[in-house]
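Hi team,

Filling in the usual template for the complex we talked about on Friday. All components are listed, including any nucleic acid strands or ligand strings, so the model treats them as one assembly.

SUBMITTER: L.P.
PURPOSE: interface mapping
COMPONENTS: two
RESIDUES: 499
SEQUENCES:
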Amino acid sequence: MDGKVVVVTSGKGGVGKTTVTSSLGAALALQGKRVAVVDMDIGLRNLDVIMGLENRIVFNVVDVVQGRCKLKQAMIKDRRINNLYLIPASQSDEKNVIQPENMKWLCNRLKKEFDFTLLDCPAGIEQGFKNSIEAADEAIVVCMPEISSVRDADRVIGLLYSRSITPKLVVNRIIPKMVEKGDMLSHKDVVEVLSIDLIGLVEMDESVVVSSNTGLPIVMQKESKAGRAFMQIAMRMNGHPDLPVEDPMAPKSFWKKLGGKISRKNKVH
Amino acid sequence: MPDHNNLPVKLKGVGDSLWVTVDDSLPVDELKNALHKPFERLKQLAVNARIILDSGNNPVDGKLIEELGGYLKEQFHVGVVTGPPQKPKPEVRNKRTEELGSAWHSHQSEALIIAGRVRSGQKLQADKHLIIMGDLNPGAEAIAGGDIIVLGSLMGTAIAGQPDNEGAIIMALDFRPTQVQIGGLAAAGSAGFGGSGKTPEFAMIENNKIVVMDYAAANPFKRFAWPEVR
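RESULT (copied from the run log):
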């Protein structure tokens, strides 16, 4: 059976598309699936850096679609996780060197080999976005709880619907303290406006920055809240759609609070 | 015994008013004289009384009302002087009867009714009225020749009465638009998240300005005597 092609998009830049793509790729692979992640940001590639694979790039996605190499030659196997492969973007070409029909061809080939193909879509709604959504079966829209991000996500959701793709929503970088004080939109406000299925809520987590710099996948850091959230999103994509979404704003249970206090005390002494 | 039917002036109490029937074939001065006697008898009762002047002709000559009204106000300090309430013209009456019967059944609606969510970057355009059963998100635009009614949250831009219908309104159950325009006027809103928590509101033009009011409290169409096609 063919695998799924999932585009990770947002409209606005800097909301965490690349982090979401790499984390979900790693999480799905850790859950035993064969996963390819494709960097669609031709000219501004990042996914390789986040995954710590930039020094192993020989060929890229443009080389594949232009026939300069075989698909296998452009696929870089992850250092730590089996079944996870990266197809990097070209840093020197322009976005329009790839056309939607090239992407259809590429994704049809990837579908045969992988359970999940994740496309890291560039910001904006121009050629790179059009290429990315052309071959996608599903979409994940990443949105931060801020007005401009919601506005752009809404635009992208409209465009995805016009292509008959029903997207799912990840609200990224939630800071519960700010939401509590009313300085940040809550995920409920975001969902109310965007009105699509929520697949995950990811808290702001400093370990994501560390992970991006070291190339160690966030989902492999057991203590990371964001890592746990990404593992759960991957489970929802991977046959457990009804797994409840944890609300970062929900009051923690007594035992969890107590556990937290003890572990903090231990750290101090 | 005087013949009451031929008196130049007759007085009758109707509700809280005094109904004065005058014979308008007589000169104004003669009518003033004829009015003098009964009003003098009324004395204090005439002060601030509401007077309806009727000549039997419909409508009563405006000049006659002005002249006799002025006289009564000056001499006897009466209140408002008006002609008798206008009865709808026969053609209006006929039209209303027809509307009650069947004419509205065959009326072709000029309203565009849309159900669903209008998202950022999407634009809805209607020649006349536009009704959205759903939400208009920030960044979305609704443009209409007539009214815009949003049965949901209005958060985007609503442009009604295009190009020059200043009588158009913009109404929403949850009214917090980015901007509204009616005719050639524009007003900035304050887009915010979370429900406004208010009752339905609407925007209309008043004194060359866009004003926003509580719909239920203002009930702008309650003064219409008859349901009209908008």
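MY TAKE: DSSP finds twelve helices and eight strands in chain A. Confidence is low (pLDDT under 50) at residues 265-269 of chain A.

Thanks, L.
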